[in-house]
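Holo model, magnesium ion. Inputs:
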Amino acid sequence: MTMNYSFLIPSLLILVLIMGYYFFRPRLPIRLNRSFLAILTIDICTEIFEAISSRLHETCSEHAPWLLWLFGVLFFFFYFSRAYMFFVFTISILDARGISRSRLHVFTPVVYYFCALLALTSPFTGWLFRVENGYQKGPVYFLFYVCCIAYILFSQLAAIRHRKELTTHEFISISAIQAILLVGIVVRALVPNWLVMNTFCLMAIIVIFLSFLNPDLYMSERGYVYNLPAFQALVSECVRRRRPCRILAFALQNYNEHREIFGGAQMDEALVAINRYLADSFRQMSPFYLRNGFYALVGQNLPDLDVLRDSISLRFASQWKTSNGELRMTVAFVEADTEILDCPADRLVNALFLSLDELGRASDADSSRSLTDSIEQITERLEIRRCLEHALDHDELEVFLQPIVDTVSGKRIAAEALVRLRDGQGKIIRPDLFITLAEREGYIARLGEQVLSKVCRFIHDHDMDAMGVRWINVNLSPLQFMSRDIPDRFTAILRQYGVSTDRIHLEITEQSMIDFSLMRDQIMDLHSSGFEFALDDYGSGYSNLTRVRRYPFTNIKIDMEVVRNYYRDRDPLLPALIQAFKKMKFTITAEGIETADMAEAVKEIGCDYLQGYYFSRPVPMPEFAAM
Ligand code: C2E
Ligand code: MG
Ligand code: MG
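Output:
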């Protein structure tokens, strides 16, 4: 049988080219890169040994049998290793995405060990192949195909199992690699003397290279240093494999302001210069540009972090040249050591960003902080999120009511609904902690609706007039106006409990009164369905009278800090302001009344309603009803 080398030799040449390119470009020290290098090396060896053994087979009469045995064994050994390595590569993609290993991975190497052992012992057993007038198939030669197909299946199963954690692109790429290898093995079985399997392996390698290893995927767009995905991959690998890894991150302070002042183009030039400085000066480490003027250096055996920090500070003490002039920036540092920190990688990266955000906005140059505090903060935030999700899913948010007292009658006339969340031990989490989190992470609409439903249920279940409560104030976050259908949803909730809209007043804080038309439209809609509006925390933000008049408020709640200041200094501004508001037909509520004197003081200057601990703290609904 004569062999056809016209597929094998070009494949080999292209492989050598890819190998050269791989070494020429920067590589991240992660397993994904190492297993790619292993595939390349093993594939090149397999092809070389296949070429040699095929040639020996063709010209067997001219060679001693031991030579055929030697290259036969080498070929089979590398051939099985290659099949296994393609599978290992799939696993390292999952690794790089931080996906934990499943039981599948523990048993999978067994097939490889078994086949490799068969290959190595072939000269003694002759099970896989024999040397008799060239190469002859042994009784278990079918394993040649079984091994490959098994690893193709294992890879595909692993990808399917973790389908959700992979991007569509990654999943398709992994599947394409398996499909190419499968076609290769089938063609090889049909026409063994074409030596065509190698071309299919090359195709698979090219897909790997383009989809997962193209250095451009990992390099910062401004060159020289790696990007954020690369940083996440490296840190998550270090954390998972408990490989010591030290991080020195720094923030260019007031980066956004610099960008505004100097313009994007000049700032970009400066960033390129910084990238190049980092890449040239710290060769034993991996430098990263994360985002927003944040950098990180990562290394296993970093030199003393203090020395490193000093040298960076020193460089930043002088300017960065750009084509338009010179730019000077200050930096602040965060240090981390994954070994000491012992926390999941994503939390570590989040904590790092939290610290860098804070330092970047501060102006004390060369300051530094350790990551431990931020990790605690992030951990606390995660715990709050867990409790919030649980409470939202199980309808377990609590609503407390705080009475609002009428100054004329001295009796309660209304109440404010204040949401409460409990942690695992039943302790109350402060609303300012979880409200901002709910706003940031998209839970606020559900939170607001749950509060409104509970308030409506309370109104439905109780005789409000007998309690002397005419309405209940419900707080609204401006982010709730982001969904267009809030008027419909609110009226639907009220209808469900048979509550009329004049029983509910909606509070919006002054700080959130940004002039955006979506919010105004929806406030107008809600107002026309009968809801009344109160302006909360007046005096805590940039108070603006014209803006107040553009919205249909009927009541203004004076912020407790303003009330406190008035009580202390008796500044005539507040009485004058209240008079002005009253002329404009607003009613006035004073918040944060803690003593009888305070109540008297604000009553004198014309407040209509009072709210505060002096009358009652916010209490659970049943307690409020029993008051
Ligand atoms: P807010 O709407 O200004 O509510 C008044 C806050 O002052 C409440 O804090 C109340 O417990 C507190 N307070 C009342 N009287 C006194 C007093 O005499 N002295 C002092 N020191 N404090 C007093 P709380 O319940 O911690 O709520 C904080 C903020 O969280 C609220 O401020 C409101 O903006 C927000 N919030 C509460 N519930 C909700 C809700 O259901 N939805 C939304 N979007 N925000 C809510
Ligand atoms: Mg309020
Ligand atoms: Mg308030």
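Residues 536-537, 557, 591 surround magnesium ion (ligand 3) (CB under 6 Å). The mean pLDDT is 91.
Archived with the compound record.
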